[in-house]
Amino acid sequence: MWNYRLIYFFKRASVYVISVLLLIVFTLEGSIYVFPFGAVIVLLATAVCGVIAGLLHGHDWLNPELLSKCRIVLFVGLAVVIPSYLIYRVQIKENFKSASRVVKSLNAYHKHNNDYPAGLEDLVPEYIEDVPVVYLGIWPRKFDYEYIKPVSIRNDEEKMQNVKPAFYIEYKGYLGVRYTYLSHERRWKLDD
């Protein structure tokens, strides 16, 4: 009798744990590009997990007693939102640190070579150990980097004006936000 209860408990608990982990993944990955789409995925997944949890407790999904089990859905929802928010905050902080390291190594490269590299791979291993990645959700992504070659242009007064070499580095954040560093402005810019 005791073994049956223990097995039943672990069976139910494992479904809850797997549901929560899947919901965390959906929350993080779904909110990367467009927030409403991510929110819809999370709400639907939470509702499905609530129905699954209700069915595991022996209730028919049309049965009004399932509505009394809303605390399960609330628990699953809270168990998803809190860790997802904490992961989200840590990833934002770490991504900004990685991006700042890349910018410093690009400036060091420019100081020694009087030009910027064609790609971030050119910085390895002399200026940076390895090219960092952006952690967004659960899969790593690369920084977008573009080298802007020096050119000469005519201004309105018909005088030649030299444009210095420059670069921009960009990575995407949650909810469609783009973090961009422009070397000629020497600052980060947020675009949403």
Provide key terms for this protein.
192 residues, alpha+beta, 4-stranded antiparallel β-sheet, two-stranded antiparallel sheet, 3 helices, elongated
Helix-strand makeup class? alpha+beta
Radius of gyration: 25 Å
Global mean pLDDT: 75
Low-confidence stretches: none
Element string (H = helix, E = strand): HHHEEEEEEEE
Strand arrangement across the biggest beta sheet: 3-6-7-8
Descriptive report:
The chain is of the alpha+beta class and 192 residues long. It has 2 domains: 88 residues, no CATH class; 98 residues, no CATH class. Helix content is 49%, strand content 19%. It has 3 helices and 8 strands. It has a 4-stranded antiparallel beta sheet, with no helix packed on it. A two-stranded antiparallel sheet has the order 1-2. A two-stranded antiparallel ribbon has the order 4-5. A hairpin with a 4-residue loop joins strand 7 and strand 8. Helix 1 runs antiparallel to helix 2, helix 1 packs across helix 3 and helix 2 packs antiparallel against helix 3. The longest helix is centred in the middle third of the chain and has 44 residues. The N and C termini lie far apart (58 Å).
